[in-house]
Specification:
The structure holds 2 protein chains of 2 kinds.
Chain A (H helix, E strand, L loop, with lengths): L17 H7 L21 E2 L2 E6 L2 E6 L3 E3 L2 E4 L5 E5 L2 E8 H22 L5 H14 L1 H5 L4 E9 L4 E7 L5 E4 L2 E4 L3 H11 L6 H18 L15 E6 L2 E4 L2 H15 L4
Antiparallel strand pairs in A: 1-4, 1-7, 2-3, 2-11, 3-12, 4-5, 6-7, 7-8, 8-9, 9-10, 12-13
Helix pairs in contact in A: 5-6
Chain B lengths: L9 H17 L3 E7 L2 E7 L8 E5 L2 E7 L1 H21 L7 H18 L6 E7 L8 E5 L5 E3 L3 E5 L2 H11 L6 H16 L8 E7 L7 E3 L2 H9 L3
Antiparallel strand pairs in B: 1-2, 1-8, 2-9, 3-4, 4-5, 5-6, 6-7, 9-10
Helix pairs in contact in B: 4-5
The chains are: A alpha+beta, B alpha+beta.
Chain lengths: 267, 230
Amino acid sequence: MKRTDPASPASPFDSPSFLDCLKSLGYWEPASFSGSVSGPAGPVPHATTVLAVRYKGGVVMAGDRQASEGYQVSSRAISKVIPVDRYSCVAIAGAAGPAIDMARLFRVEIEHYEKLEGVMLTTDGKANKLAQMVREALPMAMQGLVVVPLFAGYDAGRGAGRIYKYDPAGGRYEEDAYHANGSGGLFARNALKMLWKEGMTRAQAIEAALRALYEAADEDLGTGGPDFVREIYPSVFTMDREGTSELPPAEVARYYRDLVDSLKRKE
Amino acid sequence: MAALPFYVSPEQLMQDKAEYAKKGISRGRSVVVLVVQEGILLAADNPSASLYKISEVYDRVAFAGVGKYSEFENLRKAGIRHADLKGFMYSREDVTGRSLANAYSQLLGSAFSQEMKPLEVEIVLADLGTDGRPDEIYRISYDGSIFDEPLLTAVGGRAEQLGALLRERIKAPLPLPEGLRIVRGAFQEISEAPLPVDQMEVGLLDRKAVGRTFRRFSRQDLSGILDTPV
């Protein structure tokens, strides 16, 4: 059904989706596959390492702050972990522009549903919605603008944190311990493999996440480490019964100062 | 010229419609929207725990409706759609209560003059101020007329009495517990019946919150607030 005015009497069985609303108003043209597969016209900024780690009663999500264009730094302070609502965050890796757009739209989508229906979507519901959005971006991925989000949230029904990863074709997979994405993802995953333990506390999970990001930045050119000169540090969010909260940058800085001190050669 | 056997003068027509709408609204219960020190309080006498009369619209904007549920529910949804669209296309700061209130006023006004049956609703939009901007409360009537209410407003059945009573007792923004107690007392006095906590629907646009400032109080929250010593 084509609607021209958001105030016109809507059908009572209208979709509670904001994206459907955008489409019905003609504000959203889904990318179509042109047939010829050619990359984007020039280099585009890419977001690099993001990760999520489950702990007892919650989940922590963290990401470095650098965006890279090939071998160059295109931004030193972008935010890749984006709070979605009271209990969940999405972290983006891949082509930064479309990824940030997707995260922004996803946030409105989830919020729109909650406001219209008066209840929050379930964690599974949110994860499935994101999978649909990734699938819709497939034509863009075929042209080289790949967006792969990572989704994490506190599931009030289960009293636990949950992590979902995606593939560019819209596949959605739940991880039961941790996951890391992006160019430094492999290194972060390897570090987390060593650090992760069943039933970690929040503090332990934060420490593991920060250490894994450090290792990723150490091995991967695209991933930014702690920047003591400009005082730019990875962003860290935790989600649990209390809701989503961001770790103050001063605390992240303190952790990294101690870590760097302990790693320095003593003789 | 052909005779007009069913001629009704425009005055009569409008008057009939207004009476019809007023009658529908006065049958229902009331909602009070009140500026308090902690933010903007929205309180409804509502025996249902799931059919809401007050709702979040956007970061700093809340909605309250009285009258026919299906009609104000439709308006509420349209408002959320409008706000989310605007915030998505421009920026979150560009969504204001004033522009929404104007849109509602237009919608209700044209429905009143053009449709056979006017909408039997009265709605309130509350917009929590920021540093440079004061709090705003707009009351929009069934015929689209819009009122900018400085401190508090009441809509619904016996709203005039309720509003007069509250204006007498509240002269400046009070702390939340005191404001809520006075509102509850006024509800009870007007209806001449006790109002248990589980028959109250209460929300707050919270001055201390960042981002989405609306929160809905649970029954436990409400009992806690009402028991706070002054």
